[in-house]
Amino acid sequence: MPAIVLLALVGLAAQLVDGSLGMAYGVTSTTLLLAIGTNPAAASATVHLAEIGTTLASGVSHWKFGNVDWKVVLRVGVPGAIGAFAGATVLSNLSTDAAKPVMSLILLGLGVYLLVRFTLKGLRTDRLHLPLRSRFLAPLGLVAGFVDATGGGGWGPVGTPALLASGRLEPRKVVGSIDTSEFLVAIAASLGFLLAIGSQGIDFTWVAALLVGGLIAAPLAAWLVRKVPGRVLGSAVGGVIVLTNTRTLLRSDWVGVGDTPTERLVLGAIALVWIAAITWSVRAYRHDLAAGRGDIVAVDHGAAGPGAEPASVEPALAAADADPAPPTR
């Protein structure tokens, strides 16, 4: 029972972060499942089965607030589903001993990316409203879907920063469109795993626990994004992923220095870097706030119906850069 409660809490926390940043549900949940000894293919399958429900709930929430660009959803989601199915097939055919360090290495890379990206740069909004083309979205979806299935997460960490870095879609629609398209990816990856390994190693009670936590968190994510800066959240979750997967790699046959002074030294150094990164992110957020820019992932989820255009941060950013002027009516 304690394990089930822990999984539900992890699902809740991971969905709160994912719903705010458009990433990290799969990476965070899979990292925990690997840490408690779950077979890599079964861990990824468990998370993707739970994500069918959580991504549906998240997608509906974003649609109600007008945060979804359906053209982007289809152009990135369909190739993403193809990539996810292929990734599930590849992971299912790797032995557990070979797959666990491979998956941990992928997760470590994603964790480092999250930590560096959000600590040093935050999220970008500098090239909005230029068109996003299929020749960019289709390869992005294929790669992100493949990484998502093989790494147990990665759709958001690959897709969200790529779309934000393009600067062609406002942040609220990047997050909403990535979260919504992930529903297609979760279905495809789940089918790939079920066809390749059946239900072997999949504990459906764990699936239900992750799902329940995620479903509870989905409507709360809009509240969280107002209260906790996305930049700080990104640094925090990135550090957890780096720390946990470094420990897994150190204890693997690849390295073999588990439970030694060397391991403790490495993990202690990472923990210090993580604390420093969070501190930096908090200070950077406060500096932006003092400059009138606030947090670039904040979205005003005011009362709105499907397809409505809620206020976003871009007007505030533009106002911060403009010369002061007296208010007019």
Topology:
Layout lengths: L1 H20 L3 H11 L4 H25 L5 H23 L3 H26 L12 H18 L3 H12 L4 H27 L6 H14 L3 H7 L2 H21 L10 H30 L23 H8 L8
Helix pairs in contact: 1-2, 1-9, 1-10, 2-3, 2-11, 3-8, 3-9, 4-6, 4-8, 5-11, 5-12, 6-7, 7-8, 11-12
Protein architecture, described:
The model is unreliable at 295-329 (pLDDT under 50). The protein contains 13 helices and no strands. 74% of the residues lie in helices and 0% in strands. The protein starts with a helix and ends in an 8-residue tail after the last helix. It is globular, with a radius of gyration of 19 Å. With 329 residues, it is mainly α. The protein has helices at 2-21, 25-35, 40-64, 70-92, 96-121, 134-151, 155-166, 171-197, 204-217, 221-227, 230-250, 261-290, 314-321. Keywords: Cell membrane, Membrane, Transmembrane, Transmembrane helix. The chain crosses the membrane at residues 72-92, 98-116, 136-155, 175-197, 204-225, 265-285. Its main location: membrane. InterPro entries: TM_pro_TauE-like (IPR002781), TSUP/Inactive_protease-like (IPR051598).
Keywords:
329 residues; mainly alpha; globular
**Poorly predicted ranges (pLDDT <50, ≥5 residues)?**
295-329
Helix-strand sequence: HHHHHHHHHHHHH
Beta-strand percent range = under 5%
Task: Give a count of the beta strands, DSSP E runs of length 2 or more.
Answer: 0
Secondary structure: helix percent: over 70%
- Rg calc: 19 Å
Helix count from the secondary structure assignment: 13
